Amino acid sequence: xxxxxxxxxxxxxxxxxxxxxxxxxxxxxxxxxxxxxxxxxxxxxxxxxxxxxxxxxxxxxxxxxxxxxxxxxxxxxxxxxxxxxxxxxxxxxxxxxxxxxxxxxxxxxxxxxxxxxxxxxxxxxxxxxxxxxxxxxxxxxxxxxxxxxxxxxxxxxxxxxxxxxxxxxxxxxxxxxxxxxxxxxxxxxxxxxxxxxxxxxxxxxxxxxxxxxxxxxxxxxxxxxxxxxxxxxxxxxxxxxxxxxxxxxxxxxxxxxxxxxxxxxxxxxxxxxxxxxxxxxxxxxxxxxxxxxxxxxxxxxxxxxxxxxxxxxxxxxxxxxxxxxxxxxxxxxxxxxxxxxxxxxxxxxxxxxxxxxxxxxxxxxxxxxxxxxxxxxxxxxxxxxxxx
Length: 388
Ligand code: ATP
Ligand code: MG
Fold this sequence. Notes:
Number of domains: 2
Distance between the termini: 38 Å
Bound molecules: adenosine-5'-triphosphate, magnesium ion
CATH topology of the largest domain: Rossmann fold
Largest sheet: 9 strands, mixed
CATH superfamily of the largest domain: HUPs
Shape: elongated
Radius of gyration: 26 Å
Order of helices and strands: EHEEHEHEHEEEEEHEHEHHEHEHHHHE
Number of strands: 15
């Protein structure tokens, strides 16, 4: 019996003249991700990408898991491919579907017929498919409203496909279709989610992490690398840049009013990020900030932060509650790493009374107490880049 993956498009379907370009990007990305699972043929037809194993060595389960992390596809079905006649379809239902039923007690059968020349209508095909399954699994009950399993027969262009339901895909837009973004990645919960959200909308990601050795440890950096690798399962081809803020932080602490410390540091981070973005041809920055979450994320504080750069700063988590962000972090598998207890450079020398309603002119005056350019040049020289 021939097994295959059917990967179905999300909103790429709505693309007009650009659809072909988006589809090619999705196929290319899919091919790159499933290569490690063996030899597969990838082709596309009718807003679906077909993934066919070429020999017994090809691991279809592995390919399915990888395909679920490729942006642009909303669902992936593992299906059995048969000739377009009812005899073959019925034998496939009896032989192929039972392995997916598990402990389920209820099911419904459904059919979709994109080839209208097929002699039976969709309801007729579904009725026959349901009957066939009941002959081999008589304990099952039909429940059309809330079935535990939906058995699907798809009559397509050249073949018919049978499966027991689809897996959710990653959705979004194909990687690289929306331009390049430099994402500021800390070891927290929010920025990995923000990075993922930018990637999901088609941004190609480069990440920038600031460390503050020896105030932050080697293990804190390893944690960030692990987070980057977890996000990279979706984003693909990420680069991670690391810059040391140690001297900037020491200078700010020595020279400036403590209450402004975080804001001043954030402005340095943004300017350095802008420099990296320019060098790496990234069109925007992204952060995990959420309105009002902490003192440096009030609207007034964000104005002060944004004033330091001319490049757009995108904040995909801006309107989300912490709970919403945590939910995504759990879904994408970064949460457990994010809560490992290592320090971040932002938690080194935190002020006791940070300004929550900062006035820009006062911040700029504080900043003028240090040699901005010299500190920035020195920090920029510590840049190192890791290709994931
Ligand atoms: P997160 O959970 O993402 O760390 P947070 O709520 O702890 O966010 P802050 O520590 O104020 O908030 O950081 C706000 C944003 O600034 C982060 O989401 C991230 O984009 C960026 N950022 C913070 N610390 C770093 C760092 N060490 N390196 C790179 N970016 C950072
Ligand atoms: Mg943080």
